[in-house]
C-alpha cells in the first residue's frame, strides 16, 4: 500500500449521534419536525445517504435555496455539538494513523462534511500532523459515492497504481467510492452508521471491528530475522 484514504465520523472519529442530531436540528429550521411523515422520510434518506456530501443530501430533499439554508444550519448545529460535547477518536485510531504514516504510507482523511466542519474536527483532535492530505466534497466535481475523492487523493499524493490504495469507512457510500476508484482494499468498519450486511452489499472487501485493525491488514508483516542454529 502507498496511500490510505480514511473517513472521519464513525470511522476515525467517534460520532455518537452528533451527525444525526445536527441533521434533525437543521431540517427543523425548515419546519420539518419529529412525528411528521416528512421527518420520517428525511431521516430515512439521511441514513441511506450517510457518508455522502451533506449538501447533496439536502439538495435531494429541498430546492437549492432551502438546501443551502439547511446545510448552513447543519454546520452550525454540528459545531455547537462539538463545543458542548467535545470529540474523541475511535479507540485505536490515533495509533493507527501514526503507525500507517510511520510505515511510509500516505494518509488522506476524507469526509462528506463541508471544509469548515472538517477543519473544525481536525483542529479539535489535533490531527494536522497525523495526515498528509484532507479532502471534502468542495475539492472534487462529485462527492461520494463517486470515486473522485479517492482518485484526487491518488493524484495529489503521487500514487503509482490505484491498486496500492486502501479505503476505510463506515458507510455504504465509502465502500462504493473505494470500489469505483479501483482500490484493492475497501475495508468497512463496524463503529459507525452501517452494519456488516450493508457494507458487504456495497462492495466491502474486508469487514473490521474498527479502524484499529486496519494496520494489521495494510502494513507489511514484520520480518523474522532470527536464525535457528544448526546443532549437528
Automatic annotation (TrEMBL):
It comes from Actinomadura soli. The keyword Transferase does not apply. GO terms for biological process: DNA repair. It holds the Pfam family Hydrolase. Keywords: Hydrolase. GO terms for molecular function: phosphoglycolate phosphatase activity. One of its GO terms (cellular component) is cytosol. InterPro entries: HAD-like_hydrolase_sf, HAD-like_sf, HAD_sf. This is HAD family hydrolase. The keyword Hydrolase applies.
Amino acid at each position: 500500500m502507498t496511500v490510505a484514504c480514511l473517513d472521519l465520523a464513525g470511522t476515525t472519529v467517534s460520532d455518537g449521534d452528533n451527525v444525526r442530531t445536527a441533521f434533525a436540528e437543521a431540517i427543523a429550521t425548515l419546519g420539518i419536525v419529529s412525528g411528521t411523515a416528512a421527518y420520517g422520510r428525511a431521516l430515512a434518506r439521511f441514513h441511506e445517504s450517510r457518508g455522502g456530501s451533506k449538501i447533496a443530501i439536502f439538495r435531494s430533499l429541498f430546492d437549492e435555496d432551502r438546501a443551502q439554508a439547511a446545510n448552513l444550519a447543519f454546520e452550525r448545529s454540528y459545531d455547537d455539538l462539538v463545543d458542548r460535547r467535545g470529540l474523541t477518536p475511535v479507540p485505536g485510531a490515533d495509533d493507527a494513523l501514526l503507525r500507517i504514516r510511520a510505515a511510509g504510507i500516505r494518509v488522506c482523511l476524507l469526509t462528506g462534511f463541508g471544509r469548515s466542519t472538517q477543519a473544525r474536527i481536525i483542529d479539535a483532535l489535533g490531527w494536522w500532523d497525523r495526515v498528509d492530505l484532507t479532502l471534502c466534497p468542495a475539492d472534487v466535481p462529485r462527492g461520494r459515492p463517486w470515486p473522485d475523492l479517492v482518485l484526487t487523493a491518488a493524484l495529489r499524493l503521487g500514487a503509482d497504481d490505484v491498486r496500492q490504495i486502501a479505503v476505510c469507512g463506515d458507510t455504504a457510500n465509502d465502500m462504493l467510492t473505494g470500489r469505483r476508484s479501483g482500490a484493492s482494499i475497501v475495508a468497512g468498519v463496524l463503529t459507525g452508521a452501517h452494519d456488516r450486511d450493508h457494507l458487504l452489499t456495497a462492495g466491502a472487501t474486508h469487514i473490521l471491528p474498527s479502524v484499529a485493525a486496519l494496520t494489521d491488514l495494510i502494513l507489511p508483516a514484520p520480518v523474522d530475522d532470527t536464525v535457528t542454529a544448526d546443532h549437528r
